């Protein structure tokens, strides 16, 4: 059993090296990239549809869509006003750094300010594969249940911001927001959290503002460094 461990380390090490190359490429182009993770159906693409038109008012937005088999999500992102590239993983249940490197090569990075990478819907392995993005975003949703932080501690520990989607469904399901937040706080005390509904648009603005500030902060840091 223990002989498996070095193999896994080799895979993640090779992935991390390419993730570092991706990060350098993004930094050189002045692009802030977000890695959007969630379970299937939590609303990653819906969040992109809500967020892109607002960002596009004064930022240039790219979207990389990771999907097992279809280009449906990239089409929705393009309809929302982003320059979109689809990665079809051919069955793989997560994005890795080489896939993102290939996608970056297809994008006019110098013309973008912000890039949203929609990972494959899955709460397990996306947490283990660095992509070179600047911030990890987790999209949770009310129908998934308030026990998700307890069941998937690894991904909750590794993210920089949490979006809780589908708050319009709170009256109809047994979801204890307090219990959910307690679970989150136990794992990731500093986590920025936004409760919103992509369906109604409620709560979307503070989240959009967080993205804007993140993009602005990175641009300021880059100017200071040069
Ligand atoms: Mg999607
Ligand atoms: Zn996977």
Kindly describe this structure:
This protein has 226 residues and is α/β, with parallel strands linked by helices. It has a domain at 7-139 and 204-220: P-loop containing nucleotide triphosphate hydrolases (Rossmann fold, 3-Layer(aba) Sandwich), CATH 3.40.50. 43% of the residues lie in helices and 18% in strands. The chain is built from 8 helices and 7 strands; from the N terminus they run αβαβαβαββααβαβα. The protein has helices at 4-29, 44-55, 72-79, 97-105, 148-151, 153-157, 177-187, 204-225; strands at residues 32-38, 61-67, 83-88, 114-118, 135-141, 161-165, 192-195. Strands 3-2-4-1-5-6-7 form a 7-stranded parallel β-sheet, with helices on both faces. Strand 6 (161-165), helix 7 (177-187) and strand 7 form a beta-alpha-beta unit. The structure holds magnesium ion (MG) and zinc ion. Magnesium ion (MG) binds next to helix 2.
Can you write the helix and strand succession as a string? HEHEHEHEEHHEHEH
The CATH level-2 architecture of the domain at 7-139 and 204-220 is identified as 3-Layer(aba) Sandwich
Judged by helices, strands and strand pairing, the structural class is alpha/beta
The main sheet comes to: 7 strands, parallel
Helix content: 40-55%
What global shape is seen?
Answer: globular
Unreliably modeled segments: none
- Number of β-strand runs: 7
According to CATH, the homologous superfamily of the domain at 7-139 and 204-220 is P-loop containing nucleotide triphosphate hydrolases
Head-to-tail CA distance between termini = 49 Å
Quaternary assembly: single chain
Q: What value does the average pLDDT take?
A: 93
Q: What is the CATH class of the domain at 7-139 and 204-220?
A: Alpha Beta
Radius of gyration: 17 Å
Number of helices: 8
């Amino acid at each position: 059993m223990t002989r498996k461990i070095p193999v896994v380390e080799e895979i993640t090490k090779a992935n991390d090296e390419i993730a570092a190359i991706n990060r350098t490429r993004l930094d050189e182009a002045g692009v802030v990239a977000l890695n959007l993770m969630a379970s299937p159906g939590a609303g990653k693409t819906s969040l992109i549809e809500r967020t892109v038109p607002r960002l596009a008012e004064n930022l240039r937005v790219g979207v990389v869509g990771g999907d097992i088999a279809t280009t449906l999500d990239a089409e929705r992102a393009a309809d929302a006003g982003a320059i979109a590239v689809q990665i079809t993983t051919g069955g793989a249940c997560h994005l890795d750094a080489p896939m993102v490197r290939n996608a970056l090569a297809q994008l006019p990075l110098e013309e973008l300010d912000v890039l949203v990478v929609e990972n494959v819907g899955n709460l397990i392995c996306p947490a283990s594969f660095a992509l070179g993005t600047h911030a990890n975003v987790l999209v949770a949703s009310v129908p998934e249940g308030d026990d998700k932080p307890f069941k998937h501690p690894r991904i909750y520990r590794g993210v920089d911001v949490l979006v809780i989607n589908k708050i319009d469904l709170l009256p109809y399901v047994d979801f204890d927001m307090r219990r959910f937040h307690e679970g989150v706080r136990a794992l990731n005390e500093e986590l920025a959290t936004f409760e919103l509904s992509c369906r109604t648009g409620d709560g979307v603005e503070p989240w959009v503002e967080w993205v804007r500030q993140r993009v602005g902060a990175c641009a300021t840091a880059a100017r200071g460094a040069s």
